[in-house]
């Protein structure tokens, strides 16, 4: 199928094309065609843009979208907001049977967009600043669509090049529509998923969900994304904070067959080794977790260390923890505790000093994280102990002040 821009004869009479499509359309689509034709006849370009966006989102309109774009939209694209034009083109591009055709179509549309870059001065013309919105946003959204098409074709280097250009342009903008961010982060997440780069995938996927309207996602898509996010959180060697994921409503889609994965994330957040051990019986259902069992064991031990540091008494007497205490909390032999502490220090999960001779560690800070029910109870108890300690200190200071005042009066009377 040819996806080149149609010749002038193909779009010579847009109104006749619309009337023909309106007459031949099934009853479910006829009102949409009527809305498009009416807006075009009245030259209500904004209304026409809205009608076109609604049409390409309608179930059953897919077979007519390519012809609509070629024979009508190309004739009035200069009347349409550039960002909305790209939004329509992205949807139409999905209707091509082959990724190569999709890429060719999107490249054709992209070539007609305005450049988002400033123009340097020449001998014949002055410098031109970067154009205002929506030109940069349209360009970025189009680049994202091209990157996704390249990803489908297995062109990872080409996809990454487009994504890097998107990232650079987005960082230069003061205001960007969520639609554009969603387009970029969605493709970036897919790219990092293919690369099995869990940390960047986790970040990009969460940002995508923050930008997209979840109502646009099917139940199956939401469930798959929740599953992939959990796997990335577990296997990411830089991910030790699970709070944002635990608070995200998309996790509710895992209730049922994947409830155990959601519980596993909660176990990691709490550093609950016993719960981890019981849930690890399900790893057979996820081969990638079974293959990474040793890494996951080390990761849950690190989270248990953080939890142990969080639960230690706040009596103000000492911040020291012995290797024996840590070994008991992490279920590790004492001779492996030092390596675990050094690993936690290198990852920035804790801060403090290690005394190898005394087999103790002085912890001054642990990584902040979202607390769940029992952890909040522990925090409440610690606040209570801290309040008592502050009260005792205040009473002691007040007593000293009273003593000093009484001694002063006694000396004055004696004089």
Short overview:
The chain is mainly alpha-helical.
Q: Show unreliable segments.
A: 4-10
Mean pLDDT across all amino acids: 89
Rough outline = elongated
Order of helices and strands: HHHHHHHHHHHHHHHHEHHEEH
What distance separates the N and C termini? 112 Å
What fraction strand?
under 5%
Helix count from the secondary structure assignment: 19
Give helix % range: 55-70%
Radius of gyration: 31 Å
Protein name: PCI domain-containing protein
GO molecular function: structural molecule activity
Pfam families: PCI (PF01399), PSD13_N (PF22037)
Family: Belongs to the proteasome subunit S11 family.
Report on this structure.
It comes from Cutaneotrichosporon cavernicola. Pfam families: PCI (PF01399), PSD13_N (PF22037). Keywords: Proteasome. InterPro entries: PCI_dom, PSD13_N, PSMD13, WH_DNA-bd_sf. The chain is mainly alpha-helical and 415 residues long. Among the domains are: 70 residues, no CATH class; 99 residues, no CATH class; 78 residues, Arc Repressor Mutant, subunit A, CATH 1.10.10. Helices cover 64% and strands 4% of the residues. The chain has a three-stranded antiparallel sheet. Strand 2 and strand 3 form a beta hairpin. The longest helix has 42 residues. About 2% of the residues have low confidence.
């Amino acid at each position: 199928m040819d996806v080149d821009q149609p010749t002038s004869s193909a779009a010579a009479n847009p109104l006749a094309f619309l009337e023909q499509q309106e007459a031949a359309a099934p009853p479910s689509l006829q009102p949409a065609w009527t809305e498009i034709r009416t807006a075009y006849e009245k030259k209500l370009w904004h209304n026409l843009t809205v009608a076109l966006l609604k049409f390409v989102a309608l179930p059953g309109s897919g077979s007519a979208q390519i012809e609509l774009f070629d024979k009508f939209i190309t004739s009035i694209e200069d009347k349409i907001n550039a960002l909305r034009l790209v939004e329509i083109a992205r949807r139409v591009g999905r209707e091509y049977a082959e990724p190569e055709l999709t890429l060719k179509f999107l490249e054709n549309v992209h070539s007609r967009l305005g450049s988002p870059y400033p123009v340097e001065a020449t001998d014949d013309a002055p410098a031109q600043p970067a154009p205002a919105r929506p030109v940069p946003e349209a360009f970025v959204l189009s680049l994202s669509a091209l990157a996704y098409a390249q990803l489908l074709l297995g062109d990872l280097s080409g996809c990454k090049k487009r994504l890097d250009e998107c990232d650079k342009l987005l960082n230069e903008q003061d205001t960007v529509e969520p639609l554009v961010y969603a387009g970029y982060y969605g493709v970036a997440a897919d790219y990092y998923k293919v690369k099995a780069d869990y940390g960047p995938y986790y970040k990009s996927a969460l940002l995508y969900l923050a930008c997209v309207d979840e109502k646009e996602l099917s139940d199956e898509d939401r469930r798959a994304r929740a599953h992939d996010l959990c796997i990335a959180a577990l296997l990411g060697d830089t991910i030790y904070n699970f709070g944002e994921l635990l608070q995200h409503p998309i996790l509710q889609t895992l209730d049922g067959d994947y409830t155990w994965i959601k519980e596993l994330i909660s176990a990691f957040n709490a550093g609950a080794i016993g719960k981890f051990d019981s849930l690890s019986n399900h790893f057979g259902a996820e081969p990638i977790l079974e293959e990474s069992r040793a890494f996951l064991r080390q990761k849950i031990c690190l989270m248990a260390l953080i939890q142990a540091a969080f639960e230690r008494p706040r009596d103000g007497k000492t911040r020291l923890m012995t290797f024996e205490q840590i070994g008991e909390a992490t279920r590790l032999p004492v001779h492996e505790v030092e390596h675990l502490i050094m690993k936690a220090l290198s990852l920035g999960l804790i801060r403090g000093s290690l005394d190898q001779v005394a087999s103790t560690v002085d912890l001054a800070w642990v990584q902040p994280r979202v607390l769940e029910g029992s952890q909040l109870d522990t925090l409440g108890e610690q606040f209570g102990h801290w309040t008592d300690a502050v009260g005792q200190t205040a009473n002691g200071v007040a007593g000293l002040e009273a003593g000093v005042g009484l001694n002063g009066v006694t000396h004055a009377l004696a004089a």
